[in-house]
Amino acid sequence: MKKVLSVLMILTLMFSLAACGSSEQSSTEAQPEAEASAPKIGVTIYKFDDNFMSFVRRSIEKSAGDQADLILNDSQNDQAKQNEQVEMMISKGVKSLAINLVDPQAAATIISKAKEAELPVVFFNKEPSPEDMASYDKAWYVGTTSSESGVIQGELIVDSWKANPAWDKNGDGKIQYVLLKGEPGHPDAEARTKYAVETIVEKGIEVEELELQTGMWDSVKGKELMDAWIAKHGDKIEFVIANNDAMALGAVNSLKAEGYFEGDKFMPVVGVDAIPDALTQIEAGTLVGSVLNDAANQGKATVDLAINVANGKDVLEGTEWKLDDKKAVRVPYLAITKENIQVAKDCYSE
Which has more pLDDT, 12 or 304? Predict the structure, then answer.
């Protein structure tokens, strides 16, 4: 009986060792395959709590799925921190970089680091200069045509102004406006400010600028500026133009506190981005409209390009994206009002 038990124990032990060996080998064999199909991609966002960029980040994560091992970094609006993050990601063996610059003028520094490591880099949302882009054959950009958002916003203002003659409070035929500008020097802020106003004038409507200050893309700063402007100008303000929805929503909150959007007391406000919170206000009638900045497709295009180059493929292989003469994928803008709001809602649907 003892001999039988001993034999059984030996057989059980041998089976256990064989099973462990088999499991370990399977895991070892599977690992290179997983790494080959899911390259490490280093991603930085200039700051995670930016309203619009939070949706781009969500799209990046969703689009990557199991095709990439993302290393995501919040640069907290600090270029020095972002530079360190890029060095850290390179040391971790990333196969490509996807960079939302804190400061577009820092592109040369990032490109230098990428070049030294022989890594491809896809910039997104904040566009480097043409000179910086031309300096490295493994650099690309995903974003928009900055001027387009300003032109579309200007057309939106013109159309809504003409449809509502009562908005011309003093009857002088001019739009007395205040403008909430984004980050100074940011290509989108500069272009939206310039082209929105120029488009209004080109369409035959005179304008008078009452105020133009930077709200740094931030809703709290937008509200603070609007509070000060209402105190200074009161009902002389006939239109609020904001470079993005966050600042537009800040202005709306300020106006609500002063009794606007109740009864006949109304102030037209327009933004850019068409983020979900802005869509809610458009439906409620407290925001005239916005310009859809397609976060979903910007995130997807960024990931598509970054995965391709990480895998040593042509940057556009298997995609429908097109590059312009500046090595950039341009995602188009679209005016959003209550009439076509579903188009914007669809961009945020899971």
Answer: 304
294-333 burial code (b ≥16 CB/10 A, e <16): bbbbbbbbbbbbbbbbbbeeebbeeeebeeeeebbbbbeb
Q: What is the pTM of this model?
A: 0.81
Distance separating alpha carbons of residues 181 and 237, to the nearest angstrom = 16
The amino acid present at 346, given as its one-letter code, is D
| Residues 245, 272: Cα–Cα separation, whole Å | 5
- Name beta bridge partners: 139: 121
Higher confidence at residue 43 or residue 31? Answer: 43
Cα gap 128→306, rounded to integer Å: 17
The rounded distance, in Å, linking the Cα atoms of 96 and 310 is 5
Percent composition of the chain: helix, strand, coil (DSSP 3-state, to 5): 55, 15, 30
Q: Which two structure tokens, joined as six digits, stand for 200?
A: 């209004």
Strand partners, 142: 124, 329
Residues 93-128 have pLDDT tens digits of 999 999 999 999 999 999 999 999 999 999 999 999
| Beta-carbon contacts of residue 174 (< 8 Å; ≥ 6 apart) | 168, 205, 206, 207, 208
What is residue 140's DSSP assignment?
E
95 touches 43 (CB < 8 A): no
